[in-house]
Design goal:
mainly alpha, three-stranded antiparallel sheet, about 5% strand, 4 domains, 6 strands
């Protein structure tokens, strides 16, 4: 019995049992009676069930198949395999005229299934493959690709699990289990006992507790996977902020209790709340009544989140609901947040305004760059200039077009000299995540930043063993670097441009840099390399390499001095 670790006995009847861990405190325990007292037949059945269970257990662990469905499917495997064993034994006793030929065909069948399971359904057979294996493989391929086989597999799975509407992905998963089980079940050739024992009734194992249905708990489990997949922390924080926002507005923090009317009410509240919500730490503890009371005191142009923000919140809820369903939680089947998305009324290029050269020249006449009262009162006139993150980040934005988080999260090691050119190295780091693969890039440092002493600032930070160029920008509560400079930029814009800067923000520096490069006649591909945008087609995305650094440096030099 050592060869079958999942095989044991209950009285005289053999049983199969397997345990696995799904969460840190949850054990999935599946026990099934094999319905036989014969040791040889029990080994054959256990091998088959173990083969099928390898992928079943994997699907349970990643929440694609519930433990109940897995248990039912494996029970069906046992019943069908026992019936098949009995039929083969009967045919062998009555119909076999050449046992050696039977063995040869069995070996070919085993080899064909093994090749398909390990190399795929449509793999190319090696030239030395025997004709019998080729013929057997082709027969299996035709059978697995047939509509009849698809219906049979789908019907069997649905019958045993009561899981209707098998999706294309789920069918591929079940087919993978089927092929893997077939391959492993054909390995070996133990002698079979022709006597079939009656199936013993099996008491189903108790259903393990489902994970917490609280929205924030679902998000934390989802974020743990997304973090492994490389999703940037900013996006993961947005999911967590959504959880607090939805609970505050709806009074519901359980994903299984949300109904479509709740989502409609949530969307309506988003259109009535202050546009600035979430930018102050005080907003985290505000109640719905307090938020709406604040909105009532604001002018109309300060009320209502943008269409894009509302749709983002609805998409978050949609993803969270789908994730919870995959975990086996009883989410309302009529819940469809994506159905309530609002239609955009503004073209993408018109959503964000870009600074003009004159506006930026006015911005950089603020006391931050001409002389401040103190570092705390940096926007008030005085005699001292403090070259901190508030000073450098807007300048870097104007001379690179980089994103706020890319700039605020710079480390001393991100200032590099390549081919004799000083550059910003924009890559993933412990301080910040980049948005996507096309965001990973080298941006030459504008000569004006060097004239202002930026390289000296970087060298000083390196000598002080700082992990960040701008440690004063870090906010513990938000675990981020960019928000503080974003708020200060808003203050500076309001102070210098007043109502003319209402649609401008730190992000407008990115649009400004791109517009300036475009208007200066810089090649579109070079602009995309500097800004960090994907190529327009498969050629640009896959085959075209980044422009040479000297070409990028020449393009950066065409951005006008604004400070």
């Amino acid at each position: 019995m050592n060869a079958q670790p999942h095989l044991s006995k209950r009285g005289d009847v053999y049983q199969w049992r397997r345990k696995t861990r799904r969460f840190s405190t949850e054990i999935i325990d599946i026990k099934l009676s094999l319905g036989t007292t014969d040791r040889t037949q029990a080994h054959i059945l256990a091998r088959k069930v173990s083969a099928e269970s390898d992928l079943i257990m994997e699907q349970i662990v990643v929440n694609r198949i519930t433990p109940e469905h897995g248990r039912a499917f494996l029970t069906a495997v046992i019943h069908k395999e026992r019936a098949k064993i009995e039929q083969l034994q009967m045919l062998a006793r009555i119909d076999s005229l050449d046992p050696a030929d039977d063995a040869r065909h069995d070996d070919a069948m085993a080899e064909a299934w093994d090749r398909i399971a390990s190399s795929g359904l449509n793999h190319a057979l090696a030239p030395e493959t025997s004709d019998l294996v080729r013929e057997t493989t082709e027969l299996i391929r035709k059978d697995l690709a047939s509509i009849a086989r698809r219906k049979a597999i789908t019907s069997a799975y649905q019958e045993q699990t009561n899981h209707n509407n098998l999706s294309a992905l789920e069918y591929v998963q079940v087919l993978d289990i089927y092929v893997s089980g077939k391959a492993k079940a054909w390995v070996g050739g133990e002698e079979m006992d022709p006597v079939a024992q009656p199936v013993q009734p099996e008491t189903p194992a108790p259903c393990p507790d489902l994970p917490s249905p609280k929205i924030i708990d679902v998000i934390n489990r989802m974020n743990a996977i997304k973090r492994i997949e490389g999703i940037e922390e900013k996006t993961l924080r947005q999911y967590q902020s959504f959880a607090a926002l939805f609970a505050m507005l709806s009074g519901t923090d359980d994903i299984t209790k949300i109904r479509q009317p709740d989502v409609k009410a949530f969307r309506a509240d988003l259109s009535m709340m202050p546009k600035s919500w979430g930018k102050s730490p005080k907003d985290r503890t505000a109640t719905r009544d307090e938020v709406m009371a604040k909105a009532a005191s604001l002018p109309l142009d300060k009320i209502g989140l943008s269409v894009g923000t509302i749709n983002r919140h609805l998409e978050h809820l949609n993803q969270i609901a789908d994730w919870a369903r995959d975990e086996g939680l009883s989410v309302d089947p009529n819940l469809n947040p994506a159905k309530l998305r609002k239609k955009e009324t503004v073209r993408a290029r018109d959503k964000r305004a870009a600074f003009s050269v004159a506006q930026l020249q006015a911005i950089f006449q603020n006391p931050v760059w001409t002389g401040s009262k103190s570092e705390y009162h940096q926007t008030k006139p005085g005699q001292d200039i403090f070259q901190n993150g508030v000073y450098w980040c807007p300048l870097i934005g104007a001379y690179t077009g980089a994103r706020r988080e890319e700039i605020a999260g710079l480390a001393p090691s991100d200032i590099v000299k390549v081919e004799g050119i000083w550059c910003f190295s924009i890559v993933d780091s412990e301080l910040r995540r980049i948005k996507n693969l096309s965001s990973r890039r080298m941006i030459p440092i504008h000569s004006h930043l060097i004239e202002l002493g930026f390289l000296d600032h970087g060298l000083k930070a390196q000598n002080n063993n700082q992990n960040s160029l701008f440690p004063e920008l870090y906010e513990v509560g938000n675990d981020a670097y960019g928000r503080k400079v974003g708020r200060r930029m808003r203050q500076i814009i309001d102070q210098e441009l007043r109502e003319h800067g209402a649609k401008l923000s730190f992000h407008s520096l990115r649009h400004y840099a791109q517009n300036q490069l475009d208007h200066a006649g810089v090649d579109d591909k070079i602009v995309r390399d500097i800004i960090g945008h994907e190529g327009k087609d498969i050629h640009d995305k896959v085959y075209r390499k980044s422009a040479p650094l000297p070409a990028l440096s020449q393009a950066i030099a065409r951005l006008p001095k604004v400070a």
